[in-house]
Amino acid sequence: MKVPGGAANKLFRLVNRATSEEKENIEHELPFVVMIFTLMAASGISLYDGWKRMRNLTFLPSFKKEADEVVRQVEVMGKDPLTVMHNRAEKTNSKLYRNFLGGFISSTRSGGRIVDFMKSELKAIFELRNIAMTRDIEKIATLVESYAVMLIVTLCAYILFVVFASTSMLELMVQTSIPNSPVMSYLVAFLFMPLISLIFIMAAHNMQRSPFINLNDLYRNAIILMLAIGLPICLISLVPSFGVITDTIGLAELVTGGLIAISFPLAIQYYRIARTNYNAEDAIPSFIRDVTESQKIGLSPEKSIIQATTRKYYGQFSQFLELIRSQIEWGIPLRRTFENIRQKIRSWFVIVNFAMMIETIEIGGNSSQALEILSEYSEKEREVQTSRRALLKPYIILAFVWSVLIAVTTTIVALTTSLMATVVSTSLSSVTVLAMENQMSVFSIGIIFQCWISGFFIGKISEGNLAAGFKHSAMLAATAYISLILSRAFLAGAFGIHLTA
Length: 501
Prior knowledge:
Blueprint: H1 5-42, H2 47-54, H3 61-75, H4 81-91, H5 95-109, H6 114-165, H7 169-175, H8 183-207, H9 216-238, H10 243-249, H11 251-296, H12 301-309, H13 318-329, H14 334-342, H15 348-363, H16 367-392, H17 394-424, H18 426-463, H19 469-495
Helix pairs in contact: 1-6, 1-15, 1-16, 2-3, 3-4, 4-5, 5-6, 6-8, 6-16, 6-17, 6-18, 8-18, 9-11, 11-12, 11-15, 11-16, 11-18, 11-19, 12-13, 13-14, 14-15, 15-16, 17-18, 17-19, 18-19
């Protein structure tokens, strides 16, 4: 039975995409998985026992699935653990994971010290992680530059359309096949430019991962606000009987206010989430270091944690530490305490480090050495994440620059076209200005809407999630509106032409 060519190609693309996503997820989780194996090895736990414990770590879904498969083949099918790991190394598409398994197998068979191998592998993976971060930032820079170029190209295409549609070329265009319908303005402003932004947002999604998990409540609120505010605005702008409202307030003002009203409460909600969790990310390495030092002087794990929670200057993370201390003092097990805290913290980095600390303490053995390793690499990972955010912040400024440029450039072209029409003919001038006002009214709203969408692209670029874009989208929409108003006020006065919104 033959598979149709189109169906075969589609199936091939789906398989490739799934394989690529699987590889990306594995390599994202691998540094922390190697860290966990290193901590277990330092505490005297074998790698296979490590795989068995890995099945409980639901926040590492790819390796939880991998652990389930390894344990299944060993305990159900009776295979040797090293043979299973060798087979998994041959099947994986991740070179880093393949090298890790291959190195472990070679080290075990040659009689080498597993702890030394794990430390060496951990150091190598984190060095590669730093190199990969530099490459990712370069790719993101290219993506942002490409996005700006595409916006400018689309704007230039629209400007050419405006020039043709608003001058004496109008009669020539009527006799030819060049489009001059107002529909073109709507297509460019509300379809082509937003579509470009969505494409680039999807590209950014594949480059940037969100540091936070479970932001679904914020996105649900966003959908509710978009429906509650967006639908009435669309109704007012499309239904002629509501023309009194648009004439009184102004359609551009109404749209700008609506977009800001959607973004502002969500931006506040995200700011509170981000402030708490970024503070937790800054504090967790110091907290683990305090627990480690307390362990070195002979305190029990529970007393070490209680001692560490009493330290000041943890910021908002202190509220979680107080909860941890109270639960431990009430006799709640550490594992249960972690599960309770996990429901309140959204930072993946904090959850992973806290879980590794709990695993190390529960295993026992040489936990002081293991916690020392965890403290060292937790601090390194925090520095990597802080540097990454700092290097990406300048692109936020670039978004405001192109928002202003798009608004000012469009106004300049509109005024220049009207001035040219005045030179050609006084009678043509009034027609041209009227046509230009209609064009500018449509495209001004399109520019504001486009800048609002650009905020989500910048949020994805700078912080890895769309929720961060709400604060940028509100500010960019306001920036575009103010730029349009100011550019018309100053430039129209200089040209001696009056334009309305």
